[in-house]
Write a structure and sequence with these properties.
Distance between the termini: 35 Å
Radius of gyration: 21 Å
Strand content: 5-15%
Shape: globular
Number of strands: 12
Number of helices: 13
Largest sheet: 7 strands, mixed
Structural class: alpha/beta
Order of helices and strands: EHHEHEHEHEHEHEEHHEEHEHHEH
CATH topology of the largest domain: Aspartate Aminotransferase, domain 2
CATH class of the largest domain: Alpha Beta
Helix content: 25-40%
CATH architecture of the largest domain: 3-Layer(aba) Sandwich
Strand order of the largest sheet: 2-8-7-6-5-3-4
CATH superfamily of the largest domain: Type I PLP-dependent aspartate aminotransferase-like (Major domain)
Length: 384
């Protein structure tokens, strides 16, 4: 069996451990109920029933109708599909324009380059120093040719909440679609697609203690977009390919659990983050990014003075802690976080930033141990 040295896992924004409930629910579908959900006989009807049940569970998490949920391989696919699928649904002979924010996940930002290659104009709305994209930044970029605005619900690096509902009100009487990447929000922020006023919403199973390789896209009824995966009738013809039944089942159970335990979990996560930040605020020179904005309860992004994040993360790893230096998709990069850069955080401060993200399995005792180590690191004379 693969052995790990990590004793305390504080990188839940990157991924979360699979919950026991999902693991148990998935087990029968690895080999026992192995049927293809598109076939007509009994073993396949059982698989189809499991998919349908999971669709209801995921829909309930976000206040959607089950037929508005399309299962995908994760948040990245969902984000790619939104941008490309809505673009391909536009009139080929018309001008096309989308508005994204400057603090989106790379799944959005890198797909923007593909949009440009197919003739779509792209603008990026700036955030303020707290990491919030204000509605007037969106409003001044709107054009007659704008067909989509995409703004994440919770930033994956800072935890800062974005004013999605306000943007929805801004777009209410227009033809512009609104998408939100809610990957970091699910299970930590109450999600209701009607209250949000969004047309499209991305989810990922492994961020809510479900399996990796599972995700969903909420597509409001009568929203026009083209499929990217073709070749079969699965997902009501919207996404071809044999369904990953075990992953879908595990995702559904994790979604149901996230919904039923939301209040308790949110309070627990907030208590952990508050305890950590109270200790950090007592240390000289530490800066907590986005602290003056509304944030999801599970993320704390902070900078240690004179300590390069890469060195600190390695030091912490040797002592049994797993923390991040930003989004996992950008880890190992030498350039500073594009999110902190957009917030006008000074370069050195951005290079010294760590991201601690809590999960429901974490404890106050673990926070105390972490703070003790951070205090030793901040008082050591070495910096790199």
């Amino acid at each position: 069996m693969l052995q790990t040295t990590t004793e305390i896992y504080f990188d839940n924004a990157a991924t979360t451990p699979l919950c026991d409930e999902s693991r148990t629910a998935m087990e029968p579908y690895w080999s026992g109920v192995f049927g293809n959900a598109s076939s007509p006989y009994a073993i396949s009807r059982a698989a189809r029933g499991a998919v349908d049940a999971a669709r209801h569970q995921v829909a309930n998490l976000i206040g959607a109708n089950p037929d508005e949920i399309v299962f995908t391989s994760g948040g990245t696919e969902s984000d790619n599909w939104v941008l490309l699928g809505t673009a391909l649904a536009q009139d080929k002979n018309s001008e096309k324009h989308v508005i994204l924010s400057s603090i989106e996940h790379p799944a959005i930002l890198e797909t923007a380059e593909t949009l440009r290659q197919i003739g779509v104009e792209v603008d990026f709305a700036r955030c303020d120093e707290n990491g919030v994209v204000q509605p007037d930044e969106i409003e001044k970029l709107l054009r007659e040719s704008t067909f989509l605005v995409s703004l994440m619900t919770v930033n994956n690096e800072t935890g800062v909440l974005q004013p999605v509902s306000e943007i929805a009100r801004l777009l209410k009487d227009t033809k512009v679609l609104l998408h939100t990447d809610a990957v970091q929000a699910a299970g930590k922020v109450l999600l209701d697609v009607d209250e949000f006023g969004v047309d499209l919403l991305s989810l990922s199973g492994h961020k809510i203690r479900g399996p990796k390789g599972s995700g969903a896209l909420y597509v409001r009824r009568n929203t026009h977009m083209q499929s990217l995966l073709r070749g079969g009738p699965q997902e009501r013809g919207r996404r071809a390919g044999t369904e990953n039944i075990p992953a879908i089942v595990g995702f559904g159970v994790a979604a149901e659990l996230a919904k039923s335990t939301f209040d308790r979990n949110q309070m627990h996560l907030l208590d952990l983050r508050t305890a950590l930040e109270n200790e950090l605020n007592a240390l000289d020179g530490i800066v907590i990014h986005g602290k003056d904005a509304q944030r999801a309860p599970h993320i704390c992004n902070f900078s240690l003075p004179g300590k390069r994040a890469e060195s600190v993360v390695l030091n912490l790893d040797l002592q049994g802690f797993a923390v991040g230096t930003g989004s996992a998709c950008a880890s190992g990069a030498l350039h500073p976080s594009h999110v902190l850069e957009a917030m006008h955080v000074p370069l050195e401060e951005a290079q010294n930033s760590l991201r601690v993200s809590f999960g429901v399995q974490n404890t106050m005792e673990e926070v105390d141990k972490f703070v003790s180590v951070i205090k030793k690191i901040t008082t050591s004379s070495t910096s790199s």
